[in-house]
Amino acid sequence: MWLLDKFLKSAVRKGRLIVTDHDGKTYDYGTGDSAETPLRITLTNKKAANHIARYPQMGAGEAFMWGWLKVEAPHDIRDLILFVTEQAGKPGDRSLKPKGKLRTAAQRLIAKADSINLRGKAKKNAEHTYNLTRALYERFLDEDRQYTMAYYREDPETTSLEKAQLDKKAHLAAKLHIQPGQRILDIGCGWGGFALYLARHYDVEVHGVALAPDQIKFCQERAEEAGLADRVKFSLTDYRDVTGTFDRISSVGLLEHVGTPHYPQFYEHTNRLLKPDGVMMSHCCGRAGPPGFTDAWTRTYIFPGGYIPALSELVSQSEQFGWQVMDVEAMRFHYSHTLEEWYNRTVQHRAEIVDMYDETFYRMWLYYLAGAEQSFRHGDMVNWQLIYVKDRSAIPMTREWITEESARLRAADADQVPEWRFAQDQAAE
Asked: Among residues 85, 109, 139, which one ends one of the domains?
């Protein structure tokens, strides 16, 4: 315990944390306000303290997953992660990251190797992440199964996740500057919500591609049910194998999975697919600072092969293949509100998720959502939205078209906001 004790004595600057080790000994950190309830955790395994202290980010996540670290009521793991991130002196503070140049360099090299996503590995990674049971995703995502940031134009406290996700689709669609009769490629189409949205609102053909078999099967079922199967096609296809030409290309939540070694391939191939007067819009999680690396816990348990890019990486790589970046928008805090709602919905369905998988999986999922939320709330994570063109005349000179088209789309859907299928259960609780 001495190593973890030493770490916490220097790390805890605000609030109060009380740790009970496996042997019953209690350790008190910070001062805090005497009126506030201290955050209490219990270590249930004699290996827990050293496991956490050795590499806090990986060790803490695994200790919580395995039941070695318990957060005592009335607090939960979200409160603990918030407590830890609030100790940071500035956004993106590295207090929980590997210490020392050699250890940091080693993690960076390992992360770089993990991001090499050849076709077979890319498919395996996608299946790891997205081929979990549909019943899991429908219990924490919005009704349209948007597994990316929602767009809170209004107060997050009073705006439903369903409304915010609908507004997100309007915002993204507006940026594509779509014209009637165009062909659109949606790379990383997820469960098909955005592709179907485009087909409902525009006279266009859409081809959605992804690598998770169950996602594609679900997309095809949705297209048939909506009567749009003649205009919206979904296929289990690596984007690198797509042929033909398109007027518009969208990638929402894709670049995080491409891997930095493959950015040249991504930008070269999409440039080949897009017509000379076309537009490509990309939405992805990103770093507000310089390039970094994905932590080991996330790479291991949630997004193998994943990487959150800095803006400099996206722009410098795209420029090499004839792309011109015409619009950049940094979406701040929207994802933290989205993740908070996903976390609350997951907690609501604890019993069902444990039945689907087990307690270890449930705790892993909570840790992932809570950690991600705080990365966007108190860290250096944002969402980047970029508009790429080959020809600068492909879009209007000013940004008014985005605002005007988004407003038109939102007005068209004003009475179409879906209700989450579990909303009544949530209200009853």
From this structure: 85
Domain boundary at 39, 61, 85, which? 85
CATH of the domain at 218: 3.40.50.150
Distance between CA atoms of residues 377 and 291, nearest Å: 19
Nearest of 96, 74, 77 to residue 12 by alpha carbon: 96
For 67, the domain range is: 2-85
Q: pTM surpassing 0.85?
A: yes
- Position 348 pLDDT exceeds 80: yes
The string of pLDDT tens digits covering residues 90-102 is: 544 444 454 555 4
